[in-house]
């Protein structure tokens, strides 16, 4: 098929009628006509190779059959021209239909995604995202989006997850506003070329690292924090100078629709776009070439994203999950530890990637923990926790049924109430749990906390290291040696000491103990994304800490400056002048070679430890200046 046409080319696979030609189907009904202005449109399938064309200035309308199945739209090798008035008209029409209809068709979303990817690429290549002033303006606009639409955000979050006002403000809105303000304040400093240390051989040269944007970035958000997990990485991508295709999760539809509604009102419509939809749209997006992909979600889907990215050698950040363990010993303040652990487990109904997944403690600590947890949960949520306005609901019936199935292992010591009509599960603690029980085989992602008994920090390390790396490791202890032991002997994405969630292989590991010996033992011997000692979740709020996983819990990190770095390619640059002194120093590299030149190269290239050469060029020039001054004086006296 000849694809060299004057106007844009869009390839469609599916069943269509154009004039007298009927084409073969793939799979999903489509109830709208597709206008194509001033372009050739090739329609092809596995069995047919027909082309429907309308040349000249008129337009063609492709009408779908009533029984037509899912249409897959993909861009051809012929780029869409951003300057084409026909394509502008098509894009405008598609945008209007998209905004007017909440039930926008699968084909509409797929074709729309094809158009916007090319528009985003054209915008990036035009250079409009490179100036820091443009980035600052867009970040300020994103901040305005948050400041001016809080009521709508609260409504969307309540609709999707029945989040309370305080929880929504704390975890989704104020958190994001603070991150944006921090990014705006520091952006100019972050964007400056970096000046790394120089060696002796380059003392007269310019050695720089430029922070280059990747290009067109695909960001795929998650449903559990549908605003934060979509727009926080997007802020980093904007700060770095990229254009963005944002795909919110379809599992939180109210939040996704709100993002799609608000973004075009505040951000540059050439550079930043939203694609709505489910699996078909996501599948098609992953077939396209992006310059960077940022995905937040499950490990299973993360592997699919990674495989798709590998086809184009596209770099990725994968923010996944994992069973984040909590280690609690008898040195910790138990009442405070119970509050912090149960808060981390109950916030968002446990639907948090770094929520404490299971508790490791002795049998004696378990008894005291359960007793105090009963009292504290009653204080927080009352006798009938289902009536509390402060507890979220499980996001879908499928997730609810999965969690109910996990309640069958072990013995319910606290909670256990369920209501399918509301997708409600009360905060629950399960004891007598075996490592082989179903609840210990997958990330729970709900308000259920199983307790596994261990006798020491060494047993906890052995248990954690026998499983996949968690995103976060939580350590509750006051014993510094225990903390350092755990940190050095485990692997995780991050660690939080004596708290949960407030920091950001397990994704997280929580340790509660006063023993520094046990704390160090655990920190040094467990692999996880991060560690939080004597709290949960709270490490997430520290924007100077990178947040990310290791192994099955993810690849890469972000938050604060780390978000900027994630979406930035570090471009090395060496700048040499044509000065005689520098050329003299480097002349030993030229043939003919000799022992003398080998010795000179060895001297120049030798690594000099303990000596900073940062100011050596200035000292050399100062010395040369002094020598020149005395030389001129001597000449003048003659």
Q: Which descriptors would you attach to this protein?
A:
disordered N terminus, 40% helix, Aldehyde Dehydrogenase, Chain A, domain 1, alpha/beta, globular, single chain, six-stranded mixed beta sheet, 638 residues, 23% strand, 3 domains, Aldehyde Dehydrogenase, Chain A, domain 2
Task: Explain what you see.
The chain is α/β, with parallel strands linked by helices and 638 residues long. It folds into 3 domains: 117 residues, no CATH class; 188 residues, Aldehyde Dehydrogenase, Chain A, domain 1 (3-Layer(aba) Sandwich), CATH 3.40.605; 224 residues, Aldehyde Dehydrogenase, Chain A, domain 2 (3-Layer(aba) Sandwich), CATH 3.40.309. 40% of the residues lie in helices and 23% in strands. It contains 19 helices and 31 strands. The strands form 8 sheets. A 6-stranded mixed sheet has the order 12-11-10-13-14-29, sandwiched between helices. A 6-stranded mixed sheet has the order 17-20-21-16-15-26, sandwiched between helices. Strands 22, 23, 24, 25 and 27 form a 5-stranded parallel sheet that branches. Helix 3 packs antiparallel against helix 5, helix 4 runs antiparallel to helix 7 and helix 5 packs parallel to helix 6. The radius of gyration is 30 Å and the shape is globular. It starts with 8 loop residues before the first strand and ends with a helix. The N terminus is likely disordered.
Shape: globular
Got a strand count? 31
State the domain count. 3
Strand portion: 15-25%
Q: What is the class of the largest domain in the CATH system?
A: Alpha Beta
CATH superfamily of the largest domain: Aldehyde Dehydrogenase, Chain A, domain 2
Instruction: Give the N-terminus to C-terminus distance in angstroms.
Output: 86 Å
The residue ranges in which pLDDT falls below 50 over 5 or more consecutive positions are: 1-84
H/I helix tally: 19
| Biggest beta-sheet profile | 6 strands, mixed
Radius of gyration: 30 Å
Portion of residues within helices? 25-40%
Q: How would you write the strand order of the largest sheet?
A: 12-11-10-13-14-29
The CATH topology of the largest domain is given as Aldehyde Dehydrogenase, Chain A, domain 2
The CATH architecture name of the largest domain reads 3-Layer(aba) Sandwich
Organism: Timema tahoe
Family: Belongs to the aldehyde dehydrogenase family.
GO molecular function: aldehyde dehydrogenase (NAD+) activity
Pfam families: Aldedh
